[in-house]
Amino acid sequence: MAKTLLEWSGDQDLWTRDSLRRVAAASDYAVSDDDLVAIRKNVIAAARLSGELVEGESLDRGHLGISSNETRRTAILQLGPVENIDRLAPNQQLRFAPAGITLVYGENGSGKSGYTRIAKRLCRSLAADDLRGNVFAESGNARKVTVRYKVGDDEPIALEWDPQTDAPGVQQISVFDSGNARLYVDTKNRVAYLPKEIAILEHHGEICQRLSQGFATDERTSLTRISVPFSTGYSPGSSVTAMLARLDPARTDLPIADELNTLAELSDAERGELVDLERELAADPMAMAAARRRMVALLGRIDEVLVGLQEALSNDFEVKLAAARATCIEADKAVRLFSNGEVCQRAVQEHWDGCVANPLRGCESVRHFVWRSNR
After folding, report:
1. For 152-192, what is each residue's pLDDT tens digit?
2. Cβ–Cβ contacts within 10 Å for residue 348, how many?
3. How many domains are there within the chain?
């Protein structure tokens, strides 16, 4: 079963109904930048399920130029006098017949377009124009239009209309001109007028596309900002490690703010450690810096010694050390032989044999050996 725009909007979220209302109330259905920002904020609020919309007002019959219960015909009888709009002549009235057709004609600059712009703003029009003040006149002068209309067979109603406000009672009247008759030509060259409800939906769809593009850009920017490695070094299996694993844009179980805040709270032991750190930081920084400079100098000297030792413990030094060790071993053996008397016995035997062969020379040799031994 087909639904009207009002029936369809009643099934939508509040931000959608508010967007349709803004489109219907905008001039030529083109919402302002402020309206677009408000719609965007409402979409974000709805996505977060916060329910706090910037300004949520649903589309109703009045926004479509449909009176709530009025079904009788409404007719404008008079426009004017007009004050401070398009330099229209003051104390001038443009009258219309209550029935039939009224033809208005005049030369260029006589005010036909000015009254048409007033009618488009006053009544329902697909493309409503902004009303301008009198050229060369001081700005800030109040604009005002006197309007007379009648509903059905009732007595005519006169009102002083401020163009900054809606005019009650005449929104049932539609105004068409070359500026607001949006035409679509299909393949059969059939000309069709775009109804107001469809035009509102069309512009609402354009707003949704613009918002979608903006959200896609924000998403890419956010992914670039959060695609950074987290700190490491936490104990495996700890609550912090588990929480960091959940901070992945591809996951659906992202942590909420309360979970992160709870994990960020410090325990009593951690608070005590933080107090100790603050106490250490409160010490004299100049003295601590001087002590560390001395430590750096000492470590530099130790490094020089270690480098010298490394150079000394080379292959050449190892060969020399082995030769010296062999010499020491031989010297030790010689000392041990001498201390055991083996050398003395050999020397005495040799000198004794010499004495037997040559007594005089042998005795002198024995005496000399004894003298050396006593030394």
Report:
1. 888 888 888 888 777 767 877 888 877 765 544 444 545 55
2. 15
3. 3
Q: Give which of 335, 331, 312, 311 is closest to 323, Cα–Cα.
A: 331
Residues 6+ apart with CB under 8 A from 259: 243
The answer to whether position 189 is within a domain reads no
For 81, the token pair is 């006098």
The model carries a pTM of 0.40
User: Whole domain around residue 19: which residue ranges?
Assistant: 5-62
Asked if 135 and 153 count as a contact pair (C-beta separation under 8 A), the reply is no
Size of the chain, expressed as the number of residues it contains = 375
Q: State the amino acid at position 239 in one-letter form.
A: S
For residues 158 and 238, what is the distance between their CA atoms, to the nearest angstrom? Answer: 78
Q: If you search the block for the tokens 């030790």, which residue do you land on?
A: 332
Domain finish residue from 15, 43, 62: 62
- Burial of 119: CB neighbours in 10 Å, binned 0-12, 13-18, 19+: buried
Query: Coil, strand, or helix at residue 7?
Result: helix
Q: What angle do CA 122, 127, 133 make, to 5 degrees?
A: 55
Q: Are residues 79 and 150 in the same domain?
A: yes
* Strand partners of residue 161: 145
